[in-house]
Amino acid sequence: MTVIDAHNITKIYHESEVPVRALKDVSFHVDDGEFTAIVGPSGSGKSTLLHILGGLDRPTQGGVKVGGVDLNLLSPSKLIDFRLFNIGFVFQAFNLIPVLTARENVEFIMLLQKFPKAERQKRAQELIDAVGLSLRADHRPVQLSGGEQQRVAVARSLASRPRFVLADEPTANLDSQSAENLLSIMADLNKKLGTVFLFSTHDKRVIDRARRVITLRDGEIESDKTQAGA
What we know:
By secondary structure, this protein is α/β, with parallel strands linked by helices. The chain is built from seven helices and ten strands. The strands form two sheets. The protein has a six-stranded mixed β-sheet with strand order 6-7-8-3-9-10, with helices on both faces. Strands 2-1-4-5 form a four-stranded antiparallel β-sheet, with helices on one face. 40% of the residues are buried.
């Protein structure tokens, strides 16, 4: 079943005297259970594409459907609600709330969704356990290593049971061992839960783990390949 349908996406920025075309006529779809990397050199349009797929930015032309819902047709407030319930995000800067514990950071998404307290506490603990942080659940971000913070971010991204998770350079600020641990956790969650993971990355470790690699160059799809054995 198709989760993401990107059709003819073009993005042009008019922030200077010379318009900048970040994406040109990008089309592809992502199905249930995929573990996909979007790769390419700096300036190829990776992050722009991820932001459009996640409803954080709007295309100049073309559009995105998530589970059959056309994001272009949603008002700003409806789009916020749609993201909250359907899309998980993992950013390279972690973006955790500093005054909350690891468990509370995971629980916060469900608080916004108005889940009952007992239910959100139970699920938050399950996710903290799933990413191997049971003994660190009551620690605040400043008390956690970079790898641990990113694992909390992954757990938080899954809290709403999203259709898919967008991970923008999730290993960029991690040492090699932390990056490998994080990728193993995400691959395991992908297999167990069937959650789609879509990465924007230039990290070979992520690319090697991906089962599908979409390569962008100058804002266009250069190749789209399935990797055997990944």
